[in-house]
TrEMBL record:
It comes from Stephania yunnanensis. The keyword Acetylation does not apply. It is found in: Secreted, Cell wall. The lineage of its organism: Eukaryota, Viridiplantae, Streptophyta, Embryophyta, Tracheophyta. It holds the Pfam family Glyco_hydro_28. This is Polygalacturonase. Belongs to the glycosyl hydrolase 28 family.
């Protein structure tokens, strides 16, 4: 297996692969912004640049013992990208995206660059990310797109609570992604699930500050894929769309003083400049099982579904949410399903 040790000093990066390295001097060509091709002309290249990508299919293990610091020119959409790889393992280390100045620009309403996602995998399979720490990402911390069989475990994500669009982990167009034992503190979704995500498993996640574990937003683009078999927020844009969310299980969730503990929002419009058309995304067969905790607002459960394409098959199976010393409430619009066991606030679902 290849192994790339990312040391505390980026200048000391070393590629350890005897069949590629002809002489020791080959290793000295590695610089902070450029991992150039090392080895014979017949070998496939390994490149990692600021805004570039690693694009080799061979097994690759990255052991990252120090801190990598992103450039602050905010000139690219991705910082570290792996595209079309198989069998890559990332173990430990810290990525510092240095996003604070960009967040301040955006929060001031100025014209700003988009900023970079810190770590992205696209069109890849058999990936393991373990023990990684991601700090202050400019945009998403970790983005998994069009991948298969990805395991993310024991990661720590930290950014300011007012940092915009700094989703901790984003998954879209991917199958067989497992996210376990993660601590995520950020300004946007802790975990966001985009179009085309299937067979996604999320377990033992500590989330907050942040917007929770969110499915969506969906329905912004007309040809988006659906989301299914995932397993507290589901959000879709209010516009015509053929997408869907189905077969979702939220289980053993503990909520501590969240603004929206349980919510389906089919009128999602972050910039308040959207049309008033109903959402075309169909939401069905969503189960909330053993969801307990407290709400920061009186409305602890809010199912605001499309009036032209109502939510169906919603199941509340032991949901117990409180609002201080006062009773919490539930609100349902165009939502049908069933309730079993202790359900507080009382279910408002149509049968």
């Amino acid at each position: 297996m290849d192994r790339l040790d990312l040391a505390k000093n980026v200048q000391d990066l070393v590629v350890k692969r005897p069949d590629l390295v002809k002489k020791e001097s080959d290793l000295k060509n590695l610089t902070k912004n450029n991992l150039d091709r090392v080895g014979s002309e017949e070998s496939e290249p390994t490149q990692a640049r600021s805004g570039g990508a690693v694009t080799r299919s061979a097994l690759l293990e990255l052991q990252h013992d120090g801190t990598l610091v992103a450039p602050t020119d905010y000139g690219t959409e991705n910082w570290i990208t792996f595209d079309g790889v198989s069998g890559v393992t990332i173990l430990g280390g810290t990525l510092d995206g240095q996003g604070a100045a960009l967040w301040a620009c955006k929060n001031a309403g100025k014209t700003c660059p988009i900023g970079a996602t810190s770590l992205e995998f696209t069109n890849s399979r058999e990936v393991l990310i373990s023990g990684l720490t991601s700090l202050n990402s400019q945009m998403f911390h970790i983005d998994i797109h069009d991948c298969e069989n990805v395991n993310i475990q024991g990661v720590h994500v930290t950014a300011s609570g007012d940092s915009p669009n700094t989703d901790g982990i984003h998954v879209a167009g991917s199958a067989g992604v497992n996210i376990t034992r993660a601590i995520i503190k950020t300004g946007d979704d802790c975990i966001s699930i985009g179009p085309g995500a299937t067979n996604l498993w999320i377990e033992n996640i500590g989330c907050g500050p942040g917007h929770g574990i969110s499915i969506g937003s969906l329905g912004k683009d007309p040809n988006e894929q659906g989301v299914q078999n995932n397993g507290v927020r589901i959000k879709t844009w209010a516009k015509p769309n053929q997408g869907f969310v189905r077969g979702v299980l939220f289980e053993d969730v503990i909520i501590n003083n969240a603004q929206n503990p349980v919510i389906i929002d089919q009128e999602y419009c972050p910039d308040n400049n959207c049309s008033t058309q109903p959402s075309g995304v169909k939401i069905s067969n969503v189960t909330y099982r053993n969801v307990t905790g407290s709400s920061a607002t009186a409305k602890a459960v809010n199912f605001d579904c499309s009036h032209t394409n109502p939510c169906t098959g919603i199941v509340l199976d032991i949901v117990d949410l409180t609002y201080g010393s006062k009773p919490a409430t539930a609100s349902c619009t165009s939502a049908a399903g069933s309730a079993t066991g202790v359900v507080l606030p009382p279910s408002c679902l149509a049968s």
